[in-house]
Amino acid sequence: VFILLFLDHRNFIHLGSARAFREAAIKLVTDPQTIRHVEESLDVKFISIDMYNAISVEAKKIQQKIKAKEEEIAENAKKIYDYREEAAPFNEEYDVLIAKANELFELDKFCPECGWKGSKKTTCASRMSFLMERYGDTPLKAKMAMIESPGCKRQ
User: Fold this and answer.
1) Which residues, including other chains, have CB under 8 Å from residue 106's CB and lie 6 or more apart?
2) Gap between the Cα atoms of 121 and 114, Å rounded
3) Which of 25, 37, 103, 119 could lock 115 by a disulfide, CB 3.0 to 4.6 Å apart?
4) pLDDT in tens, 40-52
5) What global pTM score does this model have?
6) Phi, psi for 121 (deg, rounded to 5)
7) Helix, strand, or coil (residue 48)
């Protein structure tokens, strides 16, 4: 049957029924309701070539932007790695200085989980955060104020 339709289409033979069949098929395929039914049943959306080309161009632009951002991320990751490498020697010195400050100012007395002035709602850590937010204190200054305060249970 398909061979006969093809031969009729190429004008090798002339079959009236083949032409009628071809016209009916074209009419059926171009019917909006049939197209909508096929799209719904296959879960696809038919689009024009122009729309497809526009979407392809936009997708390529987005891929280029993604590639540029990935390169930027890679550069920033390298910078972060380099900065960490530069800072590594200072980390040991920082740890030594913090240990000396803890010993000198008795910061080991600070316990963040205990209740401030015996409170069950307010902990020493939350009071310290309050001092830092309200008065702009540094963490060291806030801890020292907490330890020196009569509200500290560890005094």
Assistant:
1) 147
2) 10
3) 119
4) 999 988 888 999 9
5) 0.43
6) -90, -40
7) coil
